[in-house]
Design goal:
About 15% of the residues lie in helices and about 15% in strands. The chain has about 500 residues and is an alpha+beta fold. It has a five-stranded antiparallel sheet, with no helix packed on it. The protein is elongated and about 80 Å long.
Length: about 500
C-alpha cells in the first residue's frame, strides 16, 4: 500500500447535487449531519476502516444513510455498501465501527436522507453521471469522493481526496471543497493501539467518534525558535484568530467544548463523566446552567475582558475554561495564582485517578486561599499540585494568544493580556494577571500529562488553535525567561533535563 501525504489531484466529473450543510467556519456554528472523517485504507491489514458522521449531539439520525458508490472503471456507479446512521454521542459523533477491507479502490460517499434502496447501479450508462430517475433518496446531505491511483476512475462529488483516510479540518467544516479535508496519518496514529507520533507534516490524526485534529508538526510548521522575540512573534501568529463559540447557546457552545475536553471516563465525548479542576471529583455531565459544577475562567474575566459579547474572544476561549466544582470556583473568585501557607483556608481534593486526598498539611493535595477576592496585593489562590501545571499553561497561553490588535477574520478588538509579578497592576478592569513567577514554577512542578494533552487536542479541534505550552512545554523557558539555547532544527540543547520528549 502507498502512503498518500497530500490530496490527490483528480478531475471532478460531476457534483451529484447541491450540498446544503455548509458550516459557517467564522462563527463556529454548524449544521448537519456531515461526513466528517473516513479511513478507507491504512497500514497493515485493513481491519480498522470507518466512516464518521458529525451532527447534533445525542440525536437519533437513523433517517440518514451512507451510500458507498464505486468510482472504479469496472464497476462505475454501482452501490458497494450502505450504512444506516445511528444515534450520535454527546459530542455529535457516530461512526460505522471498524470495517474489514470492505471499501476497495475509488468510491464516492453519499450521505442521504430517507434512503429507499432498490437500486444496485446509479450510473447505468457509465458516463460519470447518475441517470437513475428518481434517485433512491429524498435529499443529498453531503458527499466526498476518494480516488486511488487510477486516473480513469470517476468522482461523483466536487470534494475529492486521495486514497487512505481524511478529516475535515477545522472539525465539521463543510464548504463543498477539497480544501475542507486533510489526509489522515496512514500509519495509524489514533487508530491502531500502540501507534503514536507517526503523523507527519500535512496530516491529520485518526480520531473515530472524536473531534478531528491536525498533526502537531503541521500546526507548528511556521514557528521560529531561534530567539525569544522570534518565538513569541511566530507563535502568536500561529495561535491567533481562532474560531469563537458562544459562551451559552442552544447549539454548540463552550459547555459542549468543556464537557468534551474534560471527559474522564473512557468512551468518547458524551460518554461518562467530567473530571473537575480543583476538587478532583467526577460529575455527571450537565449541558448548561448552574449545577454541581460550572465553568472556571482560570484567567478571571474581570482582568481585561469582563463583557460577554460576540466580539469577546478571551471570554469564551476554552483553552482557559475548566469544568470546576461550583463552590470551589466561588472560593477562588478572581484571586491571582500565588503560593499560600498553612494560615490560608483549605479546600481539599478527593482521591481520584491515583491523585488527591488528605488534609491539614500545607500544601499536601489541597487548594489554599486567602485575602481579597479581586486582585490586589493580598489575594491568593494556590491550586493543588495535580492541576497547577494545567492552570499555569492556560495563563501562559492567554499571554501569548492575546496581544491586542484585532481578530484577523472578524475584525473584533482584542485585549493585550499580560502576566506580571507586579500585583499592584492586577486590578478589576485591567488586563493583568499574576503571579508570573508562581505560574512559571507551577509549570515546572506539574508537567504535562496525557489528560491535559487530550483536553488541549479536543479544544483545538473546535477552535482550530492549540495551546503550544501543552505541546511544547520547553518553549516556556525561552519565552518567559529568555533561555533559548536551541539548534536550528528546533530541538533543545544544553542539559537533557530541559529536553522535550516529543518532536515538534
Amino acid at each position: 500500500m502507498l502512503k498518500y501525504a497530500t490530496l490527490s489531484v483528480v478531475v471532478v466529473v460531476v457534483l451529484v447535487g447541491a450540498v446544503t450543510t455548509a458550516a459557517d467556519t467564522n462563527s463556529g456554528t454548524r449544521s448537519g449531519p456531515v461526513i466528517n472523517e473516513m479511513v478507507l485504507d491504512h497500514i497493515g491489514a485493513d481491519t480498522d476502516e470507518f466512516i464518521e458522521i458529525f451532527g447534533t449531539p445525542n440525536s437519533n439520525t437513523s433517517w440518514a444513510t451512507i451510500v458507498v458508490v464505486s468510482g472504479n472503471t469496472e464497476t462505475m456507479g454501482e452501490i458497494d455498501a450502505t450504512f444506516t446512521v445511528g444515534n450520535t454521542n454527546g459530542g455529535g459523533y457516530w461512526d460505522t465501527g471498524a470495517q474489514v477491507d470492505v471499501l476497495v479502490g475509488s468510491v464516492t460517499l453519499l450521505l442521504v436522507s430517507d434512503y429507499s434502496g432498490g437500486e444496485s447501479d446509479l450510473d447505468l450508462n457509465d458516463d460519470g453521471t447518475f441517470d437513475v430517475d428518481p434517485l433512491p433518496w429524498s435529499a443529498l446531505l453531503d458527499s466526498v469522493s476518494v480516488i486511488d491511483s487510477d486516473p480513469d476512475d470517476v468522482a461523483y462529488s466536487a470534494s475529492v481526496v486521495g486514497a487512505g483516510g481524511a478529516s475535515r479540518i477545522p472539525n465539521g467544516t463543510d464548504t463543498d471543497s477539497t480544501t475542507d479535508w486533510l489526509m489522515n496519518d496512514f500509519d495509524g496514529e489514533g487508530l491502531i493501539t500502540g501507534v503514536s507520533n507517526t503523523a507527519n507534516l500535512g496530516e491529520a490524526l485518526n480520531t473515530p467518534s472524536w473531534p478531528n485534529q491536525m498533526s502537531r508538526s503541521e500546526y507548528y510548521k511556521g514557528v521560529d525558535v531561534s530567539s525569544s522575540t522570534a518565538l513569541r512573534t511566530t507563535l502568536h501568529e500561529t495561535i491567533d484568530d481562532h474560531i469563537r463559540y458562544d459562551y451559552t447557546d442552544d447549539a454548540w457552545d463552550t459547555w459542549d467544548m468543556v464537557n468534551s475536553a474534560e471527559e474522564f471516563t473512557p468512551g468518547g465525548p458524551g460518554v461518562g463523566e467530567i473530571l473537575d479542576l480543583y476538587k478532583n471529583e467526577n460529575y455527571t455531565k450537565i449541558s448548561g446552567g448552574e449545577g454541581i459544577y460550572n465553568r472556571e475562567h482560570s484567567w478571571p474575566r474581570t482582568y481585561g475582558f469582563s463583557d460577554n459579547n460576540s466580539g469577546n474572544y478571551p471570554y469564551t476561549d476554552a483553552h482557559h475554561l475548566f469544568a470546576c466544582n461550583a463552590n470551589y470556583n466561588s472560593d477562588r473568585s478572581s484571586r491571582p495564582f500565588r503560593t499560600c501557607d498553612i494560615s490560608c483556608s483549605e479546600r481539599v481534593t478527593v482521591i481520584n485517578n491515583n491523585q488527591g486526598g488528605g488534609s491539614g498539611v500545607h500544601p499536601g493535595n489541597s487548594n489554599w486561599f486567602d485575602g481579597a477576592v479581586t486582585g490586589g496585593m493580598d489575594g491568593r489562590w494556590e491550586t493543588w499540585i495535580g492541576r497547577r501545571g494545567d492552570v499555569a499553561r492556560a495563563q501562559l497561553y492567554m499571554d501569548v494568544r492575546y496581544e491586542g490588535g484585532i481578530h484577523g477574520q472578524t475584525g473584533a478588538t482584542e485585549p493585550d493580556l499580560i502576566l506580571t509579578d507586579n500585583l499592584a497592576l492586577v486590578t478589576s478592569g485591567a488586563p493583568y494577571m499574576g503571579e508570573l513567577a508562581t505560574i512559571l514554577q507551577w509549570h515546572k512542578d506539574d508537567p504535562v500529562d496525557d489528560l491535559e494533552r487530550r483536553r488541549s487536542g479536543v479544544i483545538s479541534s473546535f477552535q482550530t488553535n492549540r495551546n503550544p505550552f501543552v505541546d511544547h512545554p520547553e518553549w516556556v523557558e525561552c519565552l518567559f525567561e529568555n533561555v533559548c539555547s536551541v539548534f536550528t532544527d528546533g530541538f533543545e540543547s544544553g542539559t537533557t533535563s530541559a529536553w522535550s520528549f516529543t518532536a515538534p
